[in-house]
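Deliverable D4.2, example record:
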Amino acid sequence: MSGEISDRAQLIIKSVEYAGTLAKPDGHIPGTLPQVAFSGRSNVGKSSLINTLLRRTRKRIAHVSATPGKTQLINFFSVNDIFYLVDLPGFGYARVPKALKAEWRGLIEGYLERPDGPLGMVHLVDSRRPPTEQDYEMLEFLAGIEMPTIVALTKIDKLKASEREKTISAALQDLKIDRDQMVPFSSVTSEGRDELLNALTELLGVSAAE
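Output generated by the structure prediction step:
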């Protein structure tokens, strides 16, 4: 994503509804609303981030699985009836067979390349660990198709104050992205929620009043 993340009025989440699932790259997308996709390796905290972002901590929308790598489909959630939040399968879990990993990759990349696919991507990276080979591959792929991308640096609350800026700087350097493309995020403290919502509002071109 080019330009600084906007400080415009925050989008208020009024409604979230499951809209449908995509099982094949060329399958039917459940509607015509603009889409923003969320990706990340298994166990990076994607489900927790989505539930925190949408204020669905009691009645959860995205399922937090005890078995990383379990989600195998692309799930669509209608937010305020103005856009789809799209939850992509987690990747990189060691216990998943290679053939299944290849199938998931084909599903994800096929969806992202569709002309009726997402306007942008939020890719999650664990702040406590170096980016993985799959993270580099995903960001390279997104750059190749010129997909506006925000990196959410998850579990930032787990870092000591002395480690925080050093970790952010290292991640920016490793991933070769600008600071305005990164949002430090915590599902525990909700840090980064407003900033990420503002970024989605800007990307989608919607008003906070919608």
